[in-house]
Structures
1.
Amino acid sequence: MDASDRCAMVMAALALLCGGCSAGGRGSESTAESAGAATVDNGTFFNGIFFNGIFFNGVQLEPIRFDTIRLDGRALPQVSLDGGVLVASAAGGGVLSGSGLVGAELMGSLSNGAVVTLRIDGVAAGSAADMQRYSVSARVEGGGGFQPLCGVAADGTAVKAIPLAGTWDTSAGTPTGGAHIDDPNVFTFACEGYVLAKCVEFGYAPWRSVTECEAPGTCATRSLAAFHQACTRLLRADYCGDGTATTRDGTPVDIWDRFGLQADDAPTWNFEAEWGEGGAVCIDATRWATIASDGDSVQAYIHDHCGDRWVKPGCGGAGSTFFTANGFGVPLTNRALLRSRITQDD
């Protein structure tokens, strides 16, 4: 199923939510990403430009508030995330999670002011015990029945979602574009097959951590939230860290880190860049020569917006903060966390 087919399916299912489907420009997400972008191929990943799968024609789902969850008509107190699992205090005591939340409804809104009801239809196990995958449907006020929030997969089943704390700024070309917003009152349903969920599936679950040791007895805990954020920049080729995606759906990319969560599986490919929370730390090559939405030069965009990152001496070398020897004392916000290779720089 290509992008246009999937887009058409979601349009039909969520006509009032979408209001149409178009390729869009550099602004907020506007159409569904090709199913092929979720493919894993020998450790390299087909990437795309979209954070999530529920942005259409300028209309997007606003952050979901924990305090709107109701089950059997009753508000659920003290709802939160335990890793990638929704948990709530039951009205009569105890804790609800997993299948205990099936049927729960959440009230939300769209960026155009429309009211939307979300419903948890099913909960499946995730790739690890600290996460679950949710089947969620949506109903726009006055718009008929519930339809899958994240669209429908090729086999006809609803695309599942992973709950992630906070939300993301989906603007492009702005100082905060692409940034994670750490709001304890809201969470995001990250649709599988899109950037936010893929970065979790690659091992960069933002609620987890890894231990880094400079020497025996000299260790530090590193939150993977920083790696997840760097991963979102990498997959979207958001070189300048301003939310401007320069990749195209289905472009293969090799991604790796120094902790072995992802390995360098394509060492003969062209080195592209090193990545941190704020985009590329240094850039040696670009995936594409032009930005698909308007044909502008990617290198010209980099030159105009973050020129100091382009072809820096030593990019990808042994002196990088990517390695413990050089980066142990450097804050994660200023450090190279991931590296990437590409097959083309057309």
Note: The helical segments are 3-13, 15-18, 195-201, 225-235, 298-306, 324-327.
2.
Amino acid sequence: MFSFANSIKKYFLDMHIVDYPDPDIKEICYWLKEYMHCKNSYISYRTVTFRFFLWTHRQNIRLNYLQRKNVLDYISFIQNPAPDWCGTCRGFENPDWRPFKKSLSPASVYHNIKILRQMFAYFINSGYLKRNPFFLNIKYHSIIKERFIDRCLTRDECMLILDYAKNLPVHSDGELERKIRINWILQLLLYTGGRKTETNSANMGDLVYIDGRLWLRVLGKGNKMGDIPVLKCLEHSLNEYRAFYGLPLISRRKNDESHIPIIIKSSNNNDYERLNATHLCYIIKKLCGSLADSIDDEILAKKLRKVSPHWFRHTSATLQVEAGVDVHIVQQNLRHSSINTTMQYVHTSKNQQHDETLQKFTF
């Protein structure tokens, strides 16, 4: 199956190829081309559509014959994919790449179905298909009952992770560099609330001063630029991180630094290698997994093993609101177009909900 997958990956990697061997591949690639200008969306959509195509190929179903029951079968499949479809994290170009690392979470299932529904709508508008089997109302609530539940860390849990990272043992120069990097990553994710793709693609040159204030300029969804305030504590950590690589204080730099990634994997004679998004996820997973193995609290350990980079985005939003930052400012910091989206990221604890209501809702 995956020898076939590797043989057709080139069509999903090189959008300039015209001799598509299959009309379904051709149309999918034409749809993907619409997102070439937005790298992050393109990479995400490519994975979703490629594994969907592999599934239809294995089922011997053409897109124009896809029925509602096939859609429901696919939803069941991605919630529990076959073992041979799963593997460790690999880049899309790697021959050992697999469509899944494990079963998709309810939020990921929801995300996948929305993308495929959008793609089929495109096929209908282009005249390739006559009907959209994803268009009929799918009971999303049955797929994703608790989309954002338990994807947030408390302040104490954040401090536990940060303290654990600060006390990692060092026995070599390589371990020292990894320790410095993971501490920088944790604070960067926590204090900016940036998406992993935004963080991963940012450069030192994206740190800009405006009226004497330091900002991180990121390219978000839909190629929209956004500015995130850099806290003093984060600026201090940034300068410590830069010092390790022989870079000056951010306030004293004089040269263009657009070639220096904000998260450096390695450096050699002013040649800096970027850490990719997959490796970023691996670092967070490994750190929190190791911390989970070191504690006796089974409930907390189970939660820590689920932590991903995106948890820090939820956590940052929640801690900002708890600190008294106006929710509309938090919306700007997270670069959400709708306040409703921001509120999905804010996890008010039951204790705070009770105390706030008790203290403030009086007559």
Note: The chain has two domains: 2-143, 155-310.
